[in-house]
Write a sequence for this structure.
C-alpha cells in the first residue's frame, strides 16, 4: 500500500473539475450591453469599456434547444428581458466551445434564476447536483409555468442524445 502523497489531493481536485469548463485565471466581473440573444441560455455581450464581443453561456440553468418544444419561447423571453440592456457579467470560466461561462445580472436580478422561475429553463444538473435553482424549478413545475405547462418537458441533454444538436441559428 502506497503512502498518501501531498500532490494527490490536487490531482483528485483536478479530476473532479468538469471537463467542459475551465476556470478563468481570476474571476472577473464587468458590465456590458446584450447585443444578441442566440437562444434561451446563450447571449452576446459587448463590454462597456470596449473590446471584443463576448459569447456567453449563462450558467446555473439549461434552456431547451432552439428546435425543441419551448426553445423559441425561451429565447423570446430572454430577448425581451435583456436585449439591448446593460447587464453585469460575472465570469466563471470558458466551455469547450470557447464561450464564456458566466452569471448575468440585470440590475441585482440573476437572469438565470429569472428564466427558471418562469419555466423557460431547468436548473442545471451535474451528476447528483440538481443545480442552484432547483427550488425555482420545482415551483415553476408546480405552477405549470412555461415548459412545465405540458408535461413531460424533455431535458435538453436527453433531447440532444435523441436528435442531435439543432442546426446553427443565425
Amino acid at each position: 500500500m502506497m503512502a498518501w502523497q501531498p500532490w494527490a489531493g490536487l490531482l483528485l481536485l483536478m479530476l473532479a473539475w468538469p471537463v467542459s469548463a475551465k476556470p478563468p485565471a481570476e474571476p472577473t466581473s464587468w458590465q456590458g450591453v446584450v447585443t444578441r440573444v442566440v437562444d434561451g441560455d446563450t447571449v452576446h455581450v459587448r463590454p462597456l469599456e470596449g473590446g471584443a464581443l463576448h459569447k456567453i453561456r449563462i450558467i446555473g440553468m439549461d434552456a431547451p434547444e432552439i428546435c425543441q418544444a419551448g426553445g423559441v419561447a425561451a429565447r423570446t423571453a430572454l430577448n425581451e428581458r435583456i436585449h439591448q440592456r446593460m447587464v453585469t457579467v460575472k465570469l466563471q470560466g470558458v466551455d469547450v466551445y470557447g464561450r464564456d461561462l458566466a452569471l448575468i445580472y440585470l440590475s441585482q436580478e440573476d437572469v438565470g434564476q429569472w428564466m427558471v422561475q418562469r419555466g423557460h429553463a431547468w436548473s442545471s444538473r451535474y451528476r447528483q447536483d440538481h443545480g442552484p435553482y432547483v427550488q425555482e424549478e420545482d415551483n415553476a413545475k408546480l405552477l405549470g409555468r412555461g415548459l412545465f405547462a405540458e408535461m413531460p418537458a424533455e431535458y435538453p441533454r436527453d433531447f440532444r442524445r435523441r436528435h442531435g444538436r439543432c442546426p446553427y441559428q443565425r
User: Anything to note?
Assistant: The first helix runs from residue 8 to 16.
